[in-house]
Amino acid sequence: MVFYWTETMESTHTYLLDYIKKYDSIDTPFVVVTKEQTGGIGSRGNTWQQVTCGLYFSCLLHKTLLPQDLPMQSASIYFGSIFLEIFRDFNPNLWLKWPNDFYIEDSKVGGLLTQNIRDYVIFGIGLNLISSQHKALFQTYPHYDSIAREWAKDYVTNRISLENYCNEWILYAIVYKILDFLSFNIVKFDFTNTIHYQDSQNMCKAFLHTNRTWYAVLGRYSQEFHKNHRFTTHIVEDGIEKRVSLKNAKLQHDGSILLHNTILYGLR
User: Fold this and answer.
1) Tens digit of pLDDT for each residue in 36-55?
2) Torsion sign (Cα): 4, 6, 11, 15
């Protein structure tokens, strides 16, 4: 597995797109994380708005590492539901709006983008961690700051104060939780420098666990799907993008929704 960290880049998603175009075969997962994006890509081609502190993360995986029962058109729901569990350790009010947006109460705090290329899938997450102008993961649960500090101090060799560096311990804590979930055993190092690290023995086994099957993940997600009913979503119908109400939407076994006798897929 390859892990690449840098303080700023145009887009973690674009970085992996460019990477995959250079090689016919990629034999290991590739994780890219940055603190700041200058041209991040969101749903429907939107750009990410910069916040005081954000998480910008993308991962390239071979499809053989995914559950065999996963409908690829619902990969965003699959990845979103999995990482929702991780992020809820920091704020239990976070939830996943169909098909790929992270919300706290009625406000969006992040989103997820997936893309299939040949035998691979790239999924990327952008999440507001701290912001004075937008809803963010740590606005409503400030006491989680102390938890993040405790987690981060075990790994970070060069700790920097809140006043000087945008709550680095929060970003560090989340990055390490993600890497741990992906079975990436990272050693202690300094996050203030660019890092390119490879573990040739790791094959991202976490995605093969039986409780990460599509059936199990969808079952957990379906228990909260009712939260969508007060909202709308964008869908593409006959080549035209439309905004539709989710008031009467019913979640289907393949991650699609049934709305007004029409099956709709969230392909983002």
Assistant:
1) 888 766 554 554 556 677 89
2) negative
Sequence-separated (6 or more) residues with CB below 8 Å from residue 37 = 8, 9, 10, 11, 12, 48, 50, 54, 56, 126
State the SS3 of the chain: CEEEEEEEECCHHHHHHHHHHHCCCCCCCEEEEEEEECCCECHHHCECCCCCEEEEEEEEEEHHHCCCCCCHHHHHHHHHHHHHHHHCCCCCCEEEECCCEEEECCEEEEEEEEEEECCEEEEEEEEEEECCCCCCCCCCCCCHHHHHHHHHHCCECCCCCHHHHCCHHHHHHHHHHHHHHCCCCCCCECCCCCEEEECCCCCCHHHHCHHHCHHHHHHHHHCCHHHHHHCEEEEEECCEEEEEECCCCEECCCCCEEECCEEECCCC
Report which of residues 228 and 49 the model is more confident about: 228
Q: Bridge-partner residues for 143, per DSSP?
A: none
Answer with the residue of higher pLDDT: 68 or 183: 68
What is the chain's Cα-based Rg? 18
∠ Cα 105 108 114 (to 5°) = 130
pTM, entire model: 0.86
Q: Please state which of the ranges 2-6, 25-29, 206-210 shows the lowest mean pLDDT.
A: 206-210
Please report which confidence band the pLDDT of residue 162 belongs to, taking 50, 70 and 90 as the band edges.
Answer: very low
Assign residue 238 a region (left: φ > 0; alpha: ψ between -120 and 50; beta: otherwise): left
